[in-house]
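Example (one chain per record):
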Amino acid sequence: MTKNQHTLRERVSFSGTGLHTGANTTITFCPAPENHGLRFVRTDIQGSPEIPALVEHVVDITRGTVLEHGNVRVHTVEHVLAALVGSLIDNCRIELDGIEPPVGDGSAQPYTEAIQKAGREEQHALRNYLAIDRTIHYQDEKHGVDIVALPLQNDFRVTVMIDYHNPALGTQHTGMFNLETEFVKEYSSARTFCFLSEIEMLLEKGLIKGGGLDNAIVIVDEDIPQAELKRRVSKLGIQDSVMLGENGILNNRKLRFKNEPARHKLLDLLGDMALIGAPLHAQILAARPGHKSNVEFARMVRKLYKQKQLSKKYESTGAAGTVFDCNAILKIMPHRYPMLLVDRIVEYDPEAGKIVGIKNVTINEPHFAGHFPGRPVMPGVLIIEAMAQTGGMLMLHRLENPEKQLVFFLSINNAKFRKPVVPGDQLIMEVALTSTRKAMFTLAAKAYVDGAVVAEAELMAAIIDKESDKENEKTETK
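Predicted structure:
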């Protein structure tokens, strides 16, 4: 697989109508520097605001993927992103003079051809691959959706299956085993599709304003009179004659591939997975995927990506089940023996505001020499301190330079100790962020041993700069 990052050699543009908004827009693909990533730029708005193509910015998936940043939106980005991913472009400034990219023929081919025309330029920086090292499974039982990411060393493959219980489609599947050689020829030209019964509903929702038979395949899923058929499609502004196709497709339009709908679903999945923000080393298996499931799956994978980036930054081992090992914790935390009371962090989810840390309690702890030496019990105040330190690690993503800042705890409320903690126990500390105000935050913390709660408390803390703290000390000394 490609080792280095790539961008475009030159700018390239084309114009057209947006599928859902019906807006006339021009899209321009522009070269971008290393580590820039993929970003949409609304050139029609003062200041040309940017929207990073990341899953954090997804705000709607009704019938396409919509991104928003600072009240500025871009609609239906998945085909654009699929074309860039399929063309192995890592860094690109995607300029739009409207709210939605032109739909073209309903596939990613127009974008892919434009990118090929501009040419690809290798950059010096290496691609930052995310190697999937554990199974990641998204499931929506109600809609029969399953998407799984499996470990696959130094390679990327995608398999998609769809089944709409429709005679025109049947059960279809497709598999892409080499992104670099297969995407352009085998997938970029797969067009979007919808069912005849959906047209009226989509229009009522204010969608497919730019839709037509030249940019979508319409699958016939009901038997209706010709007059009713004409009435429905006329709402799309189509005045030409239409008929129920014998092949199950409106006007007997020919498919570009026998399994074109399945290929388009794979194309959509690629575009939505671009929102992870990194190329993958993985095997992706998807059954009945759609934009909602794609985006939720991308969120799960991006969470792992962020954890691995932090582990990499602090040189953690990255061992399965560990986000920060003891060496990484020593680089982040100011505490040292005998007051460092967290051995490793096994879960870290800054978006959800949750963290899980582990403290292995041994007879060698210095406090056991004097705290009930005949029957050693870990002091409750140290259990609180261990939970507090774990909570401090949760604030890591809020700190620009963790090594230059400190977390000071201001109060402890509703502290309860349920069971004694003794040598040989393993403390599992679960801490959740409950409120934030400027540089202050409140945490709910619980400590477990063998699945039973041994202690809990509400903690309030503040983030301060080490240097400002030193200045305060100097002032007090004077």
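Caption: The radius of gyration is 27 Å.
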